[in-house]
Design goal:
Helix content is about 35%, strand content about 20%. By secondary structure, it is an alpha/beta fold. Strands 2-1-3-4-5-6 form a 6-stranded parallel beta sheet, with helices on both faces. A 5-stranded mixed barrel has the order 15-16-17-19-18. A 3-stranded parallel beta sheet has the order 7-10-11. Helix 9 packs parallel to helix 10 and helix 13 runs parallel beside helix 14. The chain is globular and about 65 Å long.
Length: about 425
């Protein structure tokens, strides 16, 4: 059959898409690029935010019309049917539903004569979908979360902690590098929990060391680790990062709020002081480390003082990257039952957050101006883009023949709040 797959959301979803396509091709099906030419249409969904969910439901409705016109089949996969199957059923009653954990079994829904509902089951540990974004390959190492944050709906879609085996991850990295990947992104919902249910301990540092022994000219970026799961492996992880130049000196540690009151409402298992101590320890042990963080603006119970405390900690810790978003009410979460912050207040705080993030980002990057630094080339989009050893992006002005996967000495000439601009030094 001719099958069309459309995916939204995070790297885990994109990996699931790659896994589905691989399985379907193995079974003799053909992947097509146009839903109007497909016998089966699969939409792989995201439900992390309210606006995303609404877009998903609108798209499901449109694809349903296309499928019905061709007397074809519609399959809704991903986090939306796993977390809110009733919403999908209301929009497309005849659609088959497939959870993320059943991505490798998508063929059952494709090849069945009627509607199939596959929302139970556990992910296979030894199968990883390999996807590429140009020369960058995100490799999922785990899914599921041991936390229980009040605002999160994703836990309903990917609740059970499942770590992929070291062997499967290493094989995926080897394959990606052989196919031309120059950047490997170890991804998951919380990498600090990797290995706990599989090996009986936190194994992220061991995995990083194992990946760093593989041959090839590539770099490794470590994905998000929650503050409550980072301390037990911190020293070992930092040693692994420092031991090989191919591991970016970069950590992604979400803050979410600079207020203990709001952190408690979010059911985050750390205090502001504990978080600050953790980040300061990291920066003390790796002086040029780059830290990315996440912040939710306007979570229920956040007052003006709480918000100001969040701005204060961003200025104090001088994060290299801050991913921030306005709070979005999600069904079946504890935060949904709390008093909401007025929309106008959230929007005003979002603007002030943007100003602070731009101010701090520019301050952090201006210190690189005038330096000559090695830049590893990872991307091309009208111009070449590379990364410093600590993952800060550098837009390159070509000073010779450039290509993916090489390191060039670069004079940093300009800084923005988001990146650096540099000229490749001529030999």
């Amino acid at each position: 059959m001719r099958i069309y797959v459309e995916t939204y959301g995070c790297a885990l979803n994109r990996s699931d898409e790659a896994l589905m396509k691989h399985v379907l091709i193995e079974r003799g099906h053909t992947i097509v690029d146009d839903p109007s030419n497909a016998d089966v249409v699969i939409i792989n969904t995201c439900t992390v935010r309210l606006d995303t969910e609404q877009h998903m439901l609108n798209r499901i409705s449109s694809l349903r019309e296309l499928a019905q016109a061709r007397k074809g089949k519609l399959i809704v996969a991903g986090c939306l049917p796993a977390a809110q199957p009733y919403k999908v059923a209301k929009t497309a009653p005849e659609a088959s539903l497939v959870s993320p954990q059943n991505s490798s079994r998508i063929y059952v829904a494709v090849e069945s004569d009627g509607k199939v509902v596959m929302l139970d089951g556990v992910r296979e540990r030894d199968r990883i979908g390999l996807c590429f974004e140009n020369k960058i390959a995100p490799i999922p190492i785990q899914e599921g979360c041991l936390s229980n944050c009040s605002f999160c709906i994703t836990k309903h879609a990917r609740r059970v902690l499942v770590s992929h085996t070291v062997e499967a991850i290493v094989k995926s990295v080897e394959t990606a590098v052989r196919m031309g990947a120059v950047e490997i992104q170890l991804t998951g919902m919380d990498l600090g929990t990797y290995g706990m249910e599989l090996y009986g301990k936190r194994c992220l540092p061991e995995l990083v060391r194992r990946v760093s022994t593989l041959p090839g000219e590539f770099r490794v970026r470590i994905g998000m680790t929650n503050p409550e799961h980072l301390p037990p492996i911190l020293d070992e992880l930092l040693e692994a990062v420092k031991s090989d130049r191919r591991i970016y000196r970069f950590l992604h540690v979400p803050l979410q709020s600079g207020s203990d009151k709001v952190l408690k409402a979010m059911n985050r298992k750390y205090t502001v002081d504990e978080y600050k101590g953790l980040i300061k320890e990291v920066k003390q042990k790796i002086s040029d480390v780059s830290i990315a963080t996440d912040v939710i603006v306007g979570h229920p119970l956040e007052d003006e003082e709480d918000f100001e405390e969040t701005l204060k900690i961003i200025r104090e810790l001088e994060f290299e990257r801050v991913h921030f978003a306005g709070y979005s009410v999600r069904p079946n979460t504890l935060s949904a039952g709390m008093p909401n912050i007025p929309t106008r207040v959230r929007k005003e705080r979002m603007l002030r957050m943007l100003e602070t993030v731009e101010e701090v980002g520019l301050k952090v990057r201006e210190k690189y101006i005038g330096l000559t630094l090695p830049v590893f080339i990872t991307e091309y989009s009208n111009t070449w883009v590379g990364r410093l050893d600590n993952y800060i992006p550098v837009i390159l002005v070509e000073g010779g023949s450039l290509k993916y996967g090489i390191t060039v000495e670069t004079v940093i000439e300009k800084a923005t709040f988001y990146d650096l601009r540099g000229r490749v030094r001529s030999n």
